[in-house]
Request: fold
Amino acid sequence: MPDFDLIVIGAGPGGYVAAIRAAQLGLTVACVEKEDVLGGTCVRVGCIPSKVLLESSERFVMARDHLAEHGVVVGDVTLDLGAMMERKDAVVKSNTDGVAYLFKKHGIERFTGVGELRGRGHVVVHGADGEEQELHAEHVILATGSRVASLQGVEVDGERVITSDHAIALQEVPKHLVVIGAGVIGLELGSVWARLGAKVTVLEYLDRVLPTMDEEISREAKKVFTRQGLDIRTGVAVTGTKRTKQGVTVSVAEGDAVKADVVLLATGRAPNTEGLGLEAAGVATDAKGFVTVDERFTTSLDGVYAIGDLIHGPMLAHKAEDDGVAVVERIVTGHGHVDYDLVPNVVYTEPEIASVGATEEQLKESGVPYRKGVFPYQANGRARAIGATDGKVKLLAHKETDRLLGAHIIGARAGDLIAELVAALAFHASSEDVARLSHAHPTLAEVVKEAALAVDGRALHI
Ligand code: FAD
Ligand code: NAD
Reply:
């Protein structure tokens, strides 16, 4: 007899949500996690700590540079980095404790150690003390997530050449931080340290920042971040780093090397499969190391499933959570599905950047006829009131049917505004549907409504 109905390996947003949903549906569940705390990359060293530091550093800049415009005079504003980091750690702890509480509430049995798959329904837990524990279950979900991908010639030492794991815990503000990669991590954590006083240079291999985003939005983003003081150099391929007495030298394919005090490697993440025993157990991976699954999240080994950053699709916490729910519902009810075309993408910089659905480039490439509606924050009363006039909402709708196909926002609270458009796309709404909805005044959501009106050339406030 198996010990459990389900064993989940990994307690990130994919694994812990899968465990909770399985318990809700009446399964007996074990979850194996190698770290002492639950929550995975997202809670420990990803989404949560980075968002705490983005918020704190934004408040620092607000107090230092902008409160006086509101007639609020605070005198000299100084940084207490230690206190900022303590608060970040406390928020992370409240979240990891929260997951532990949920495990208790749902009767999920937790095993601390490295999980290794030994075949269908068979997992060995390697404890820190060298002890091994055998677990058996009918189903096994692999949810071991991802780690920072290495870059040839760049040796991470955690001190001068760092990853996001270290960049959320620096003890002092570097004089000159060079970021390799103008993707999400590069721009979010580059913004944090620039706001706290570092000179920040971002070196990006491609010709624009956030290369997977809609091009018009990514060009606007570069302008705004450059205005904020980030030195963004595109079309620059980093070939290596070398430690010197004073710091680090970053060599690039063409042109002069760049000198830095600290270098942040932010060129992507890779699936965590090391030590999982996949090959021996007969679980196939693709050329990039991602576990291959079918539409039921089943791997090449029956009864073994994989989700989250470990498989294809955007490496996002909410996508991992959606995978977690869908795989368990598939196992228990036979149904469960994730629409990967409707997973929103949010960059939590200032301003925020958010998108869902097709980009303008994708529509052009696939020959889909479309109309475009764009509305600037500048023309919105609430944006003026809160002093957040940078940015725009851009909507793309089918030229003949008016069905919304894509939504792209750069501007304050873009990450919250995108939710309306995810719903609109999911329910196959037209731009006219959104334009006819009552949007409270004065809110930033009115920029969305005006962009929807603009698709038909009838925006009211411009
Ligand atoms: P993970 O969260 O990586 O969890 C996997 C877990 O498995 C880990 O706890 C790991 O310790 C454990 N594990 C690994 N191997 C084993 C093993 N053999 N045995 C036992 N346990 C094992 N996404 C967003 O949506 N929004 C954001 O704002 C955001 N910000 C981010 C900021 C940073 C700096 C980073 C690095 C990532 C960010 N992400 C964000 C991405 C997000 O963190 C990931 O997409 C998400 O955590 C993936 O969830 P997961 O459950 O698949 O894997
Ligand atoms: P990324 O894929 O977003 O960006 C990596 C960037 O590095 C790309 O723009 C790429 O062109 C560039 N690059 C690659 N090789 C280079 C080289 N040799 N020299 C210069 N530039 C080079 O990866 P990331 O920023 O490391 O983030 C990893 C993952 O974490 C992403 O998939 C993202 O989804 C997730 N994440 C999400 C959030 C969020 O949702 N807000 C925040 C952080 C991380």
User: Anything to note?
Assistant: The chain has a mean pLDDT of 97. The pocket of flavin-adenine dinucleotide (ligand 1) is lined by residues 9-15, 32-35, 40-42, 46-47, 50-51, 114-115, 143-146, 164, 185, 272, 275-276, 308-310, 315-318, 320, 348 (CB under 6 Å).
